[in-house]
Amino acid sequence: MSFSFLPSTLRTAHAQDMWLLDSAFVRLWATAGLAGALVLPALLTNFWMGVANQVFIAVIGALALNLLMGTTGQISLGHAGFIAAGAFTVAALVTHLDAPIGVTLLTALVVGAILGVLVGLPALRLKGLYLAVSTLAAHFVIIVGLGQYQAAISYGAGFSLSPPSIFGLEIASERHWYYFLLPVTLGILLLNVNWLRSAYGRAWTAIRHRDIAAESLGINVARYKLLAFSASTSLTCFAGALAAYHTGFVSVEAFDFHLLIQYLAMVIIGGLGSVLGAVLGAVFVIALPNLISVAADKVPLLQGLGGKVFELQIGVFGAIMLLFLMLEPRGLAGIWARVRFYFQLWPFKYRAWES
Amino acid sequence: MSLLIVIVIQAGFYALLGLGYVLIYRATRVLNLAHGDLMVFGAFIFYQALANSNGGLATAVLAACVGAMLLGALVYTGIMRPLAGYPVAVGVLATIALGIGLRSIVTLIWSGQTRYPSEYVGQLGRPIEIAAGVFISGIDAVIVVFAALALVGIPLLLQRAAIGVDMRGVAENALLAAQRGINIHVINALSWAAATLMATVAGVFFSLKVRLGPDIWYVGLAGFAPALIGGMDSLRGVAIGAVIVAAAEVLAARYIAPQIALAAPFLVLLIALWIRPWGIYGTREELERI
User: Fold this and answer.
1) Does A147 touch chain B (CB under 8 A)?
2) Dihedral-angle region of residue B29 (phi above 0 means left; psi in -120 to 50 means alpha; beta otherwise)
């Protein structure tokens, strides 16, 4: 029996509690968002579609990092190394075996999972500072190792990849990439949201708060920590593989500290611990410098600044990260939550309990 | 024999960097990932003073030292002090952010091109024969002498001088020290200033010996390996950590491949973190086994 004329928070069946899009309001905006995303390529130039594709790949990487740092609370500074591992997996498979994209992406996932377990094993003994340091050391070791491989196989020149094709359709232009990456990113987004709602997500959150208490409640902390590392690294390698195909060129210099800072900025500025934060952070870090440089070129006073944006962006991100860490630890998602809360409560300023 | 000399010189360099990391950790309990960039900033002050005075080494060194100490105190007061009490992740990320901020400031002021301060001080680089047929450059000799002085002098200062005792008190338990009347903010600012001074001296040596540019910050970053291996809060451990890391790097470069030298400190660090995370002389912190 359908009670759709009643207020949307009325539940008449247990299953309704588990729905992701549980009210008409949410369903309306989700449909509008999806329609907008599908229509967007018609409005964007080629350059901006390239930026949008970069945003999609960055969202996957940021979601992975958020899973590890935000939900499970394990500091990991090895992110750039894992992206490099994913990209080089693709490069190696294409160079040596001429493998199709399906095989390379799957292999990247598996390689990432294995790498995650390897890097996660020290995490069972180390916390906080020492974990951060060990992941940083792992990053350098991976990068130097891959650099050796690149020097040996391609004599330092890097690997170039031809555009991949799926079921005979070649993904060559930015528009093709957009329509390929949109469902992939949405799928991974849904996967993340689902994980966080499941027993895994609850276990990971418990580990973040107090892992000793989690252990005493029966959660096998070792298993879930390794799972978190494995899942996160797997998705990161996947993002690296996609980035390799999208750029068409793989070289170890692209995966330096700079890239790590970008991803840290995405997760911190977006807000640690929320999926929305990862998405907002990815959009902020990737799209904003492009927006600023384009806008600065239009405004006569700031014309010289446009060219400097990419040089300065890392310094600016550093300053913004610090400000967010000090003033708004929940990041952009926190700001959004505050704004939403304000309008939900208006004209009241507070209520007796937190929702 | 010459391999041993190279290890000793490299260990001297790492000891200076490691001392900086340890001093900062003892004061503020944070791993300063901006140390490499502090090193670069100080070295650039040295270079600028050298260029302005056209080879006046003494004035340049003095300017670099004063500038470094001011920078260290400023970084503590402006960034680390407001972040006291936040979780460890915040401190680490704050130092990363500081590092990239400093690097972009350096690139803005001095541009990214490589400089060679050694062209201003030619006579310092001339080879000295210390044993039969074994030559080292004058700069190398200064590095080793200075590192030895620092490794002996700083613990001595902490043992005997009144301010040294205060520093040890703050390193052991900052809260109790504050309640006992020690001005922990002054002590911490001094620690940061001293650490930045060590880093700048190391940077000056590196820039005289090799080159100077914003991209040499990773050399300073490798300096946290000796600090961690010896124990993040132990000054004794810095010497041993420096020798181990220098030996690993030089031997790896000599017997495996020269490019591995970049990863060798981090590989040794990973192994050390596996076996003994709190270092050789460090205090055991809350590291539970699961």
Assistant:
1) yes
2) left
Quick one: which of B159, A348, A302 has its CA closest to B167?
A: B159
pLDDT digits (tens, 9 = 90+) for A134-172: 898 889 889 988 988 888 888 878 888 888 888 778 888
CA distance to partner chain B, nearest, from residue A4 (Å)? 47
Reported as half-sphere exposure (CB side, CA atoms, 13 A), residue B234 has a value of 20
The DSSP string of chain B is: -HHHHHHHHHHHHHHHHHHHHHHHHHHH----TTHHHHHHHHHHHHHHHHHHTTS-HHHHHHHHHHHHHHHHHHHIIIIITTTTTS-HHHHHHHHHHHHHHHHHHHHHHH-S--B-GGGT-GGGG-EEEEETTEEEEHHHHHHHHHHHHHHHHHHHHHHHSHHHHHHHHHHH-HHHHHHTT--HHHHHHHHHHHHHHHHHHHHHHHHHHT-B-GGGHHHHHTTHHHHHHH-TT-SHHHHHHHHHHHHHHHHHHHHT-GGGGGTHHHHHHHHHHHH-TT-SSPPP-S----
The complex scores an ipTM of 0.83
CB A178 within 8 A of CB A41: yes
Among B222, B216, B57, B199, residue whose Cα is nearest residue B139: B57
- Among B273, B276, B289, most A C-beta atoms within 10 A, so best to mutate, is B273
| Whether the Cβ atoms of residue B177 and residue B170 lie closer than 8 Å to each other | yes
Q: What contacts 24+ positions apart, CB below 8 Å, involve B159-162?
A: none
C-alpha–C-alpha distance, residues A217 and A209, integer Å: 13
Q: What would the pLDDT profile of B123-162 be if each residue is shown by its tens digit?
A: 666 777 776 667 788 888 888 999 999 999 999 998 899 9
Q: Has residue B241 got a pLDDT over 90? A: yes
Query: Model confidence over B64-82: pLDDT tens digits?
Result: 999 999 999 999 999 889 8
pLDDT at A1 > cutoff 70: no
CA B179 to chain centre: 31
Interface residue A235 vs chain B (CB under 8 A): no
* Whole-angstrom distance, CA of residue A265 vs CA of residue A270: 8
- CB contact A324 to B (< 8 Å): no
By three-state DSSP, how is residue A5 classified?
Answer: coil
Q: What is the spatial distance between Cα B192 and Cα B255, in angstroms, rounded to a whole number? A: 38
Measured distance CA(B265)–CA(B34) in Å, rounded: 17
Inter-chain CB proximity B287 and A130 less than 8 Å? yes
Q: Is residue B103 pLDDT above 50, yes or no?
A: yes
The model's pLDDT over B257-284, given as tens digits with 9 standing for 90+, comes to 887 888 889 989 988 887 888 888 887 7
pLDDT, position B236: 87
Q: Is A151 on the interface with B (CB under 8 A)?
A: yes
The helix/strand/coil state of A250 is strand
Question: Closest Cα to residue A303, out of A315, A289, A292?
Answer: A292
Mean pLDDT of chain B: 86
Q: Where is A165: in which H helix or E strand?
A: strand A165-166
